[in-house]
Amino acid sequence: MTLQTLDPDPSVDPDSFDQSVLDALAGDYRFKVWGGDWCIDCKQQLPAFGAALAAAGVPDDRIESFPVTKGPSGKEGPGVDAYGVELIPTVVVETPDGTEVARFVEEAEGSIAEALAAELADAEATI
């Protein structure tokens, strides 16, 4: 099962993204995305995030999507328990060795891409 809401929104102009956001996303990171095609927040946010990843040139092999369903005790799906996913969309950014360096959960000021870029800039500043 794929997460169709992560497909890049074709109406988003790649030139509309701030270059610093694209540069941050283009780093050597892995993106793990939990969402549901049934979820209103995911439908609103993930297509633009998919477009930002595409504009940043992030290869598909560095993006993993995890479809989430609603179960009797909350969100269910691959990696939900291991990563503590309670709200969607959730995006976890990891280094190639699997160290988590940024996380977006459901909503923030601005877009997913902007929120993650700010966290990644903070992470880079502490290295």
TrEMBL record:
Which InterPro entries does the protein's record reference? Answer: Thioredoxin-like_sf, Thioredoxin_domain
Q: Where is the Thioredoxin domain?
A: 1-126
Question: Per its UniProt record, what PROSITE patterns does this chain match?
Answer: THIOREDOXIN_2 (PS51352)
What's this protein's name? Answer: Thioredoxin
